[in-house]
Design brief:
The structure holds 2 protein chains of 2 kinds.
Chain A lengths: L2 E12 L7 H9 L6 E13 L4 E5 L6 H9 L6 E6 L3 E4 L12 H11 L4 H14 L15 H12 L6 E5 L7 H16 L3 E5 L3 H7 L2 E6 L2 E7 H12 L6
Parallel strand pairs in A: 3-7, 3-8, 5-6, 6-7
Antiparallel strand pairs in A: 1-2, 1-4, 8-9
Helix pairs in contact in A: 3-4, 3-5, 4-5, 7-8
Chain B lengths: L1 H22 L8 H23 L5 H28 L1 H4 L7 H28 L12 H24 L3 H15 L11 H6 L4 H13 L7 H25 L3 H4 L1
Helix pairs in contact in B: 1-5, 2-3, 3-5, 3-6, 3-7, 3-9, 5-6, 6-9, 6-10, 9-10
Classes of the chains: A alpha/beta, B mainly alpha.
Chain lengths: ~250, ~260
Protein backbone atom coordinates (compact mmCIF):
# COMPACT_ATOMS: atom_id res chain seq x y z
CA UNK A 1 0.00 0.00 0.00
CA UNK A 2 1.53 3.26 -1.09
CA UNK A 3 -1.16 5.73 -0.14
CA UNK A 4 -3.72 5.36 2.57
CA UNK A 5 -6.40 7.97 3.11
CA UNK A 6 -8.39 7.35 6.22
CA UNK A 7 -11.61 9.19 6.96
CA UNK A 8 -10.18 12.49 5.77
CA UNK A 9 -12.26 15.63 6.23
CA UNK A 10 -11.25 19.18 5.44
CA UNK A 11 -13.01 22.20 6.78
CA UNK A 12 -12.79 25.55 5.08
CA UNK A 13 -13.66 28.67 6.96
CA UNK A 14 -15.79 30.98 4.90
CA UNK A 15 -17.38 34.35 5.33
CA UNK A 16 -16.14 37.88 4.90
CA UNK A 17 -13.22 37.52 7.32
CA UNK A 18 -10.82 37.92 4.42
CA UNK A 19 -12.22 41.30 3.52
CA UNK A 20 -12.55 42.89 6.92
CA UNK A 21 -9.61 44.91 8.13
CA UNK A 22 -7.96 45.11 11.48
CA UNK A 23 -10.44 47.60 12.93
CA UNK A 24 -13.48 45.56 11.97
CA UNK A 25 -11.80 42.46 13.36
CA UNK A 26 -11.33 44.00 16.80
CA UNK A 27 -14.77 45.57 16.82
CA UNK A 28 -16.33 42.20 16.12
CA UNK A 29 -14.10 40.45 18.64
CA UNK A 30 -15.19 42.93 21.27
CA UNK A 31 -18.84 42.51 20.40
CA UNK A 32 -18.37 38.74 20.27
CA UNK A 33 -19.67 38.84 16.75
CA UNK A 34 -16.57 37.41 15.14
CA UNK A 35 -17.67 34.04 13.99
CA UNK A 36 -16.64 32.28 10.85
CA UNK A 37 -18.83 29.91 8.97
CA UNK A 38 -17.59 26.45 8.38
CA UNK A 39 -17.75 24.52 5.21
CA UNK A 40 -16.70 20.93 4.82
CA UNK A 41 -15.11 20.76 1.40
CA UNK A 42 -14.12 17.16 1.89
CA UNK A 43 -16.00 14.95 4.26
CA UNK A 44 -15.05 11.48 5.38
CA UNK A 45 -13.06 10.11 2.46
CA UNK A 46 -11.48 6.70 2.87
CA UNK A 47 -9.53 4.80 0.26
CA UNK A 48 -6.14 3.30 -0.38
CA UNK A 49 -4.13 2.49 -3.46
CA UNK A 50 -1.21 0.20 -4.15
CA UNK A 51 1.96 0.61 -6.12
CA UNK A 52 1.31 0.93 -9.83
CA UNK A 53 -2.31 1.84 -9.47
CA UNK A 54 -3.76 4.66 -11.50
CA UNK A 55 -6.58 6.30 -9.65
CA UNK A 56 -9.06 8.58 -11.33
CA UNK A 57 -11.02 11.06 -9.28
CA UNK A 58 -14.31 12.13 -10.81
CA UNK A 59 -17.07 14.40 -9.68
CA UNK A 60 -18.85 17.55 -10.74
CA UNK A 61 -17.47 21.03 -10.06
CA UNK A 62 -17.05 21.75 -6.38
CA UNK A 63 -17.06 18.09 -5.41
CA UNK A 64 -13.86 18.59 -3.40
CA UNK A 65 -11.42 16.96 -5.81
CA UNK A 66 -8.76 19.63 -5.74
CA UNK A 67 -9.02 20.06 -1.99
CA UNK A 68 -8.56 16.36 -1.48
CA UNK A 69 -5.46 16.44 -3.69
CA UNK A 70 -4.03 19.26 -1.62
CA UNK A 71 -4.40 17.14 1.47
CA UNK A 72 -2.81 14.15 -0.23
CA UNK A 73 0.14 16.18 -1.44
CA UNK A 74 0.72 17.69 2.00
CA UNK A 75 -0.06 21.32 1.16
CA UNK A 76 -3.01 21.18 3.54
CA UNK A 77 -3.38 19.12 6.63
CA UNK A 78 -6.74 17.42 7.03
CA UNK A 79 -8.98 18.77 9.76
CA UNK A 80 -9.90 15.20 10.65
CA UNK A 81 -8.55 11.83 9.65
CA UNK A 82 -5.11 11.10 8.27
CA UNK A 83 -3.15 10.56 5.11
CA UNK A 84 -0.32 8.06 5.04
CA UNK A 85 2.16 8.25 2.19
CA UNK A 86 5.05 5.97 1.38
CA UNK A 87 7.68 7.54 -0.79
CA UNK A 88 8.02 10.79 -2.64
CA UNK A 89 5.10 12.66 -4.03
CA UNK A 90 4.79 15.24 -6.79
CA UNK A 91 1.63 17.18 -7.30
CA UNK A 92 0.78 19.10 -10.42
CA UNK A 93 -2.15 21.23 -9.48
CA UNK A 94 -3.59 23.85 -11.80
CA UNK A 95 -0.46 23.76 -13.87
CA UNK A 96 -0.35 27.03 -15.71
CA UNK A 97 -0.53 29.13 -12.56
CA UNK A 98 2.43 29.73 -10.31
CA UNK A 99 4.71 30.76 -13.12
CA UNK A 100 6.26 34.18 -13.14
CA UNK A 101 5.23 36.28 -16.12
CA UNK A 102 8.30 38.46 -16.08
CA UNK A 103 10.89 35.71 -16.23
CA UNK A 104 11.81 33.98 -19.45
CA UNK A 105 10.60 30.55 -20.40
CA UNK A 106 13.95 29.05 -19.50
CA UNK A 107 14.10 30.73 -16.10
CA UNK A 108 10.58 29.62 -15.37
CA UNK A 109 11.44 26.07 -16.33
CA UNK A 110 14.29 26.04 -13.83
CA UNK A 111 12.18 27.61 -11.11
CA UNK A 112 9.42 25.08 -11.64
CA UNK A 113 11.93 22.26 -11.71
CA UNK A 114 13.30 23.47 -8.41
CA UNK A 115 9.81 23.57 -6.95
CA UNK A 116 9.24 20.00 -8.01
CA UNK A 117 12.37 18.99 -6.18
CA UNK A 118 14.77 18.38 -9.07
CA UNK A 119 18.45 19.10 -8.67
CA UNK A 120 20.26 21.69 -10.74
CA UNK A 121 22.32 19.01 -12.44
CA UNK A 122 19.19 17.13 -13.40
CA UNK A 123 17.67 20.27 -14.87
CA UNK A 124 20.85 21.02 -16.82
CA UNK A 125 20.77 17.52 -18.24
CA UNK A 126 17.11 17.39 -19.13
CA UNK A 127 16.35 20.97 -20.03
CA UNK A 128 16.76 20.33 -23.76
CA UNK A 129 14.35 17.43 -23.60
CA UNK A 130 11.81 19.50 -21.75
CA UNK A 131 11.84 22.35 -24.20
CA UNK A 132 11.77 20.00 -27.14
CA UNK A 133 8.84 18.06 -25.76
CA UNK A 134 6.95 21.28 -25.14
CA UNK A 135 7.81 22.41 -28.67
CA UNK A 136 8.91 25.78 -27.38
CA UNK A 137 12.53 25.87 -28.55
CA UNK A 138 12.14 29.19 -30.37
CA UNK A 139 10.38 30.81 -27.40
CA UNK A 140 13.10 29.88 -24.92
CA UNK A 141 14.21 33.43 -24.11
CA UNK A 142 10.85 35.16 -24.35
CA UNK A 143 9.12 36.48 -21.26
CA UNK A 144 6.68 33.91 -20.03
CA UNK A 145 3.67 36.22 -20.20
CA UNK A 146 3.95 36.35 -23.98
CA UNK A 147 3.08 32.68 -24.35
CA UNK A 148 -0.41 31.50 -25.12
CA UNK A 149 -2.21 29.62 -22.41
CA UNK A 150 -1.87 26.37 -24.34
CA UNK A 151 1.90 26.86 -24.55
CA UNK A 152 2.09 27.58 -20.84
CA UNK A 153 0.35 24.36 -19.97
CA UNK A 154 2.54 22.49 -22.43
CA UNK A 155 5.66 23.72 -20.71
CA UNK A 156 4.21 22.90 -17.32
CA UNK A 157 3.34 19.40 -18.40
CA UNK A 158 6.73 18.79 -19.99
CA UNK A 159 8.61 19.75 -16.85
CA UNK A 160 6.29 17.83 -14.63
CA UNK A 161 6.25 14.66 -16.70
CA UNK A 162 9.97 14.16 -16.13
CA UNK A 163 9.37 13.75 -12.48
CA UNK A 164 9.90 10.26 -11.18
CA UNK A 165 8.09 10.25 -7.88
CA UNK A 166 6.49 7.27 -6.23
CA UNK A 167 3.16 9.06 -6.39
CA UNK A 168 2.23 11.50 -9.12
CA UNK A 169 -0.81 13.74 -8.81
CA UNK A 170 -2.31 15.30 -11.92
CA UNK A 171 -5.10 17.81 -11.66
CA UNK A 172 -6.69 18.57 -15.03
CA UNK A 173 -3.28 18.22 -16.57
CA UNK A 174 -4.04 16.08 -19.56
CA UNK A 175 -6.61 18.42 -21.01
CA UNK A 176 -3.93 20.84 -22.10
CA UNK A 177 -2.82 21.91 -25.52
CA UNK A 178 -4.26 21.07 -28.87
CA UNK A 179 -5.26 17.64 -30.11
CA UNK A 180 -1.77 16.63 -31.18
CA UNK A 181 -0.19 17.58 -27.89
CA UNK A 182 -2.95 15.91 -25.95
CA UNK A 183 -2.15 12.66 -27.74
CA UNK A 184 1.51 13.10 -26.97
CA UNK A 185 0.88 13.85 -23.32
CA UNK A 186 -1.37 10.86 -22.96
CA UNK A 187 1.33 8.62 -24.37
CA UNK A 188 3.81 10.15 -22.00
CA UNK A 189 1.48 9.43 -19.11
CA UNK A 190 1.16 5.83 -20.19
CA UNK A 191 4.94 5.61 -20.23
CA UNK A 192 5.17 6.96 -16.69
CA UNK A 193 2.52 4.58 -15.45
CA UNK A 194 4.29 1.79 -17.29
CA UNK A 195 7.41 2.60 -15.29
CA UNK A 196 5.49 1.76 -12.17
CA UNK A 197 4.55 5.18 -10.85
CA UNK A 198 1.37 5.38 -8.88
CA UNK A 199 -0.75 8.11 -10.34
CA UNK A 200 -3.78 10.07 -9.25
CA UNK A 201 -5.63 11.80 -12.02
CA UNK A 202 -8.40 14.34 -11.86
CA UNK A 203 -10.18 14.81 -15.13
CA UNK A 204 -13.51 15.88 -16.47
CA UNK A 205 -13.04 13.63 -19.46
CA UNK A 206 -14.69 10.39 -18.49
CA UNK A 207 -13.20 8.67 -21.53
CA UNK A 208 -9.72 9.55 -20.39
CA UNK A 209 -10.35 8.20 -16.92
CA UNK A 210 -11.81 5.03 -18.36
CA UNK A 211 -8.86 4.30 -20.63
CA UNK A 212 -6.07 5.37 -18.28
CA UNK A 213 -7.20 4.45 -14.81
CA UNK A 214 -7.81 1.15 -13.13
CA UNK A 215 -9.53 2.55 -10.06
CA UNK A 216 -11.94 5.40 -9.62
CA UNK A 217 -12.97 7.53 -6.69
CA UNK A 218 -16.25 9.34 -7.15
CA UNK A 219 -16.90 12.41 -5.07
CA UNK A 220 -20.03 14.49 -4.82
CA UNK A 221 -20.34 17.61 -2.65
CA UNK A 222 -17.37 16.56 -0.58
CA UNK A 223 -18.72 13.11 0.15
CA UNK A 224 -17.50 9.83 -1.19
CA UNK A 225 -20.05 8.24 -3.48
CA UNK A 226 -18.05 5.21 -4.48
CA UNK A 227 -14.56 3.78 -4.80
CA UNK A 228 -13.80 0.81 -7.00
CA UNK A 229 -12.76 -0.53 -10.39
CA UNK A 230 -12.85 2.03 -13.12
CA UNK A 231 -15.02 0.41 -15.86
CA UNK A 232 -18.05 -0.10 -13.71
CA UNK A 233 -17.87 3.25 -11.90
CA UNK A 234 -17.25 5.23 -15.06
CA UNK A 235 -20.39 3.82 -16.62
CA UNK A 236 -22.37 4.64 -13.52
CA UNK A 237 -20.93 8.14 -13.42
CA UNK A 238 -21.78 8.73 -17.08
CA UNK A 239 -25.31 7.57 -16.42
CA UNK A 240 -25.48 9.90 -13.43
CA UNK A 241 -24.33 12.84 -15.51
CA UNK A 242 -27.02 12.10 -18.06
CA UNK A 243 -29.58 11.96 -15.29
CA UNK A 244 -30.38 8.28 -15.72
CA UNK A 245 -28.90 7.24 -12.43
CA UNK A 246 -29.50 8.71 -8.99
CA UNK A 247 -27.24 8.50 -5.99
CA UNK B 1 17.30 21.06 9.17
CA UNK B 2 20.57 20.44 7.32
CA UNK B 3 18.82 17.83 5.26
CA UNK B 4 16.20 20.38 4.27
CA UNK B 5 18.78 22.97 3.30
CA UNK B 6 20.40 20.55 0.86
CA UNK B 7 17.04 19.48 -0.48
CA UNK B 8 15.78 23.00 -1.13
CA UNK B 9 19.08 24.63 -2.03
CA UNK B 10 18.29 24.67 -5.74
CA UNK B 11 14.86 26.19 -5.19
CA UNK B 12 16.36 28.76 -2.87
CA UNK B 13 18.97 29.79 -5.43
CA UNK B 14 16.34 30.09 -8.12
CA UNK B 15 14.14 32.22 -5.87
CA UNK B 16 17.02 34.56 -5.06
CA UNK B 17 17.83 34.85 -8.75
CA UNK B 18 14.21 35.57 -9.57
CA UNK B 19 13.94 38.29 -6.94
CA UNK B 20 17.05 39.94 -8.31
CA UNK B 21 16.00 39.79 -11.92
CA UNK B 22 12.60 41.21 -11.11
CA UNK B 23 14.03 44.02 -9.06
CA UNK B 24 16.34 45.36 -11.72
CA UNK B 25 14.18 44.62 -14.69
CA UNK B 26 14.04 47.53 -17.14
CA UNK B 27 16.53 49.66 -15.28
CA UNK B 28 19.49 50.79 -17.33
CA UNK B 29 21.88 50.98 -14.43
CA UNK B 30 20.64 47.72 -12.86
CA UNK B 31 22.48 46.84 -9.69
CA UNK B 32 24.33 50.14 -9.66
CA UNK B 33 21.15 51.61 -8.22
CA UNK B 34 21.89 49.80 -5.00
CA UNK B 35 24.99 51.97 -4.72
CA UNK B 36 23.63 55.19 -6.11
CA UNK B 37 20.39 55.32 -4.14
CA UNK B 38 21.96 55.39 -0.66
CA UNK B 39 24.58 57.87 -1.83
CA UNK B 40 21.94 60.24 -3.15
CA UNK B 41 20.00 59.89 0.08
CA UNK B 42 23.15 60.61 2.05
CA UNK B 43 23.92 63.64 -0.11
CA UNK B 44 20.48 65.10 0.47
CA UNK B 45 20.57 64.50 4.21
CA UNK B 46 24.11 65.85 4.54
CA UNK B 47 23.07 68.94 2.63
CA UNK B 48 20.10 69.56 4.89
CA UNK B 49 21.43 68.58 8.29
CA UNK B 50 25.09 69.54 8.24
CA UNK B 51 24.00 73.07 8.91
CA UNK B 52 22.23 72.08 12.13
CA UNK B 53 24.37 69.32 13.55
CA UNK B 54 27.55 69.34 11.46
CA UNK B 55 29.44 71.89 13.49
CA UNK B 56 29.13 70.11 16.81
CA UNK B 57 29.53 66.52 15.66
CA UNK B 58 32.86 65.12 14.58
CA UNK B 59 32.82 63.19 11.32
CA UNK B 60 29.21 64.19 10.82
CA UNK B 61 28.93 62.65 7.35
CA UNK B 62 30.15 59.32 8.66
CA UNK B 63 27.83 59.66 11.65
CA UNK B 64 24.93 60.20 9.26
CA UNK B 65 26.03 57.46 6.87
CA UNK B 66 26.23 54.92 9.71
CA UNK B 67 22.66 55.60 10.72
CA UNK B 68 21.41 55.57 7.18
CA UNK B 69 23.27 52.41 6.24
CA UNK B 70 21.75 50.30 8.99
CA UNK B 71 18.33 51.86 8.92
CA UNK B 72 18.00 51.41 5.15
CA UNK B 73 18.92 47.77 5.48
CA UNK B 74 16.35 47.30 8.23
CA UNK B 75 13.72 49.18 6.25
CA UNK B 76 14.31 47.38 2.96
CA UNK B 77 14.50 43.91 4.48
CA UNK B 78 11.40 44.19 6.62
CA UNK B 79 9.19 46.05 4.15
CA UNK B 80 10.13 43.61 1.40
CA UNK B 81 9.93 40.68 3.76
CA UNK B 82 6.44 41.68 4.83
CA UNK B 83 5.14 41.25 1.28
CA UNK B 84 7.22 38.20 0.39
CA UNK B 85 4.85 35.54 1.70
CA UNK B 86 1.71 36.89 0.09
CA UNK B 87 3.50 37.58 -3.20
CA UNK B 88 4.39 33.92 -3.43
CA UNK B 89 1.02 32.57 -2.45
CA UNK B 90 0.54 31.11 -5.92
CA UNK B 91 3.52 28.87 -5.24
CA UNK B 92 2.84 27.63 -1.74
CA UNK B 93 -0.80 26.93 -2.59
CA UNK B 94 0.37 24.40 -5.14
CA UNK B 95 3.64 23.01 -4.00
CA UNK B 96 4.60 21.88 -0.55
CA UNK B 97 7.70 23.98 0.13
CA UNK B 98 8.92 25.54 3.37
CA UNK B 99 7.26 28.94 3.51
CA UNK B 100 10.16 30.78 5.10
CA UNK B 101 12.13 30.32 1.88
CA UNK B 102 10.37 33.26 0.26
CA UNK B 103 11.24 35.51 3.16
CA UNK B 104 14.84 34.33 3.29
CA UNK B 105 15.27 34.85 -0.42
CA UNK B 106 14.00 38.42 -0.11
CA UNK B 107 16.31 38.98 2.84
CA UNK B 108 19.31 37.76 0.86
CA UNK B 109 18.55 40.43 -1.69
CA UNK B 110 18.50 43.12 0.98
CA UNK B 111 21.66 41.71 2.52
CA UNK B 112 23.52 41.93 -0.79
CA UNK B 113 22.36 45.53 -1.20
CA UNK B 114 23.55 46.21 2.30
CA UNK B 115 26.90 44.59 1.54
CA UNK B 116 27.41 46.85 -1.46
CA UNK B 117 26.53 49.93 0.57
CA UNK B 118 28.92 48.76 3.26
CA UNK B 119 31.78 48.80 0.77
CA UNK B 120 30.96 52.40 -0.14
CA UNK B 121 30.69 53.18 3.55
CA UNK B 122 34.24 52.06 4.19
CA UNK B 123 35.46 54.06 1.22
CA UNK B 124 33.90 57.11 2.90
CA UNK B 125 35.38 56.16 6.25
CA UNK B 126 38.87 56.09 4.76
CA UNK B 127 38.24 59.22 2.71
CA UNK B 128 37.33 61.11 5.88
CA UNK B 129 40.61 60.19 7.45
CA UNK B 130 39.54 57.44 9.83
CA UNK B 131 42.10 54.66 9.67
CA UNK B 132 40.94 51.06 9.54
CA UNK B 133 41.53 49.14 12.74
CA UNK B 134 41.38 45.51 13.78
CA UNK B 135 38.42 46.35 16.00
CA UNK B 136 36.38 46.91 12.82
CA UNK B 137 36.15 43.14 12.60
CA UNK B 138 33.78 43.31 15.57
CA UNK B 139 31.24 44.95 13.26
CA UNK B 140 30.37 41.46 12.10
CA UNK B 141 28.44 41.10 15.40
CA UNK B 142 25.89 43.90 14.88
CA UNK B 143 25.63 42.98 11.19
CA UNK B 144 24.80 39.40 12.05
CA UNK B 145 22.38 40.53 14.76
CA UNK B 146 20.48 42.97 12.56
CA UNK B 147 20.25 40.28 9.88
CA UNK B 148 18.64 37.86 12.34
CA UNK B 149 16.47 40.67 13.66
CA UNK B 150 15.24 41.50 10.15
CA UNK B 151 14.43 37.88 9.38
CA UNK B 152 12.53 37.47 12.64
CA UNK B 153 10.57 40.67 12.21
CA UNK B 154 9.94 39.77 8.57
CA UNK B 155 8.36 36.51 9.72
CA UNK B 156 6.03 38.30 12.11
CA UNK B 157 5.11 40.97 9.58
CA UNK B 158 4.62 38.68 6.61
CA UNK B 159 2.34 36.43 8.63
CA UNK B 160 0.28 39.39 9.84
CA UNK B 161 0.21 40.78 6.32
CA UNK B 162 -1.50 37.64 5.05
CA UNK B 163 -4.25 38.04 7.64
CA UNK B 164 -4.56 41.83 7.70
CA UNK B 165 -3.46 44.02 4.83
CA UNK B 166 -3.76 47.04 7.13
CA UNK B 167 -0.35 46.13 8.49
CA UNK B 168 1.25 47.61 5.41
CA UNK B 169 0.08 51.12 6.29
CA UNK B 170 0.51 50.80 10.02
CA UNK B 171 4.03 49.52 9.59
CA UNK B 172 4.86 52.35 7.19
CA UNK B 173 3.97 54.86 9.90
CA UNK B 174 5.83 52.84 12.50
CA UNK B 175 9.00 52.81 10.41
CA UNK B 176 8.81 56.58 10.04
CA UNK B 177 8.45 56.98 13.78
CA UNK B 178 11.34 54.61 14.41
CA UNK B 179 13.45 56.55 11.94
CA UNK B 180 13.06 59.69 14.04
CA UNK B 181 13.76 57.75 17.22
CA UNK B 182 16.96 56.20 15.92
CA UNK B 183 19.16 59.27 16.19
CA UNK B 184 20.17 58.99 12.58
CA UNK B 185 20.80 62.66 11.85
CA UNK B 186 20.95 64.11 15.36
CA UNK B 187 23.03 63.23 18.39
CA UNK B 188 21.65 62.11 21.73
CA UNK B 189 24.16 64.22 23.70
CA UNK B 190 21.67 66.98 24.40
CA UNK B 191 19.32 64.58 26.20
CA UNK B 192 19.58 63.71 29.88
CA UNK B 193 21.53 60.52 30.69
CA UNK B 194 18.28 58.69 31.49
CA UNK B 195 16.74 59.59 28.15
CA UNK B 196 19.94 58.55 26.43
CA UNK B 197 19.54 55.12 28.01
CA UNK B 198 15.94 54.92 26.82
CA UNK B 199 17.20 55.10 23.25
CA UNK B 200 18.57 51.60 23.72
CA UNK B 201 15.01 50.30 23.91
CA UNK B 202 15.11 50.74 20.14
CA UNK B 203 16.93 47.75 18.64
CA UNK B 204 17.93 49.63 15.52
CA UNK B 205 19.48 52.40 17.59
CA UNK B 206 21.44 49.78 19.51
CA UNK B 207 22.93 48.45 16.29
CA UNK B 208 23.66 51.91 14.92
CA UNK B 209 25.31 53.01 18.14
CA UNK B 210 27.46 49.85 18.16
CA UNK B 211 28.71 50.80 14.70
CA UNK B 212 29.45 54.37 15.71
CA UNK B 213 31.30 53.38 18.84
CA UNK B 214 33.63 51.17 16.83
CA UNK B 215 34.08 53.31 13.73
CA UNK B 216 33.92 56.90 14.97
CA UNK B 217 34.67 56.85 18.69
CA UNK B 218 37.18 54.01 18.66
CA UNK B 219 35.55 52.31 21.65
CA UNK B 220 34.75 48.69 22.29
CA UNK B 221 31.07 48.41 23.28
CA UNK B 222 30.34 47.00 26.72
CA UNK B 223 29.24 43.44 27.40
CA UNK B 224 25.79 44.81 28.14
CA UNK B 225 25.61 46.43 24.76
CA UNK B 226 26.56 43.12 23.17
CA UNK B 227 23.92 41.23 25.11
CA UNK B 228 21.32 43.79 24.14
CA UNK B 229 22.12 43.45 20.42
CA UNK B 230 22.07 39.65 20.52
CA UNK B 231 19.03 39.57 22.80
CA UNK B 232 16.86 41.68 20.51
CA UNK B 233 17.74 39.52 17.52
CA UNK B 234 17.10 36.21 19.26
CA UNK B 235 13.82 37.25 20.89
CA UNK B 236 12.38 38.53 17.63
CA UNK B 237 13.58 35.47 15.74
CA UNK B 238 11.95 33.17 18.30
CA UNK B 239 8.64 35.01 18.11
CA UNK B 240 8.81 34.98 14.31
CA UNK B 241 9.50 31.25 14.11
CA UNK B 242 6.71 30.56 16.54
CA UNK B 243 4.27 32.61 14.45
CA UNK B 244 5.27 30.75 11.30
CA UNK B 245 5.08 27.36 12.93
CA UNK B 246 1.68 28.07 14.43
CA UNK B 247 0.15 29.39 11.21
CA UNK B 248 1.99 27.22 8.69
CA UNK B 249 -1.18 25.58 7.38
CA UNK B 250 -3.48 28.54 8.00
CA UNK B 251 -2.03 30.96 5.43
CA UNK B 252 -3.62 28.94 2.67
CA UNK B 253 -7.13 29.94 3.73
CA UNK B 254 -6.46 33.66 3.68
CA UNK B 255 -4.82 34.24 0.32
Amino acid sequence: MILNVEDVSIRYITGDFKDIGLKEYFVRKLKHEYNVKEFWAVNGITFSIDKGDMLGIVGTNGAGKSTLLKAISGIMIPTKGRVERCGTIAALLELASGFDGDLTVKENAYLRGAMLGYTRKYMDDTYDNIIEFAELKEFENRPFKQLSSGMKSRLAFSIASLVQPDILILDEVLSVGDGAFRKKSENKMREIIGNGATTILVSHSIEQVKTLCNKVLWLEKGKQVAFGPSEELCDKYSAYLEGKYKI
Amino acid sequence: MLNKIVKYQFLFEELVKRDFKKKYKRTVLGMLWSLIAPLLQLAVMALVFTKFFGRTTEYYVIYLFTGNLLFSYYNDATQGGMRSLLQNSAIFCKVDVPKYMFLLSRNIQSLINFGLSLVIYFVFVIAYGISLKWSFLLLIIPIFCIMIFNIGLGMILSACYVFFRDIEYLYGVFVMLLNYLSAIFYTVNSFSPTTQKLFYLNPIYSYISYFRKIVIYNQIPSIRHHLLCIGYALVILCIGSWVYKKNNYKFLYYV
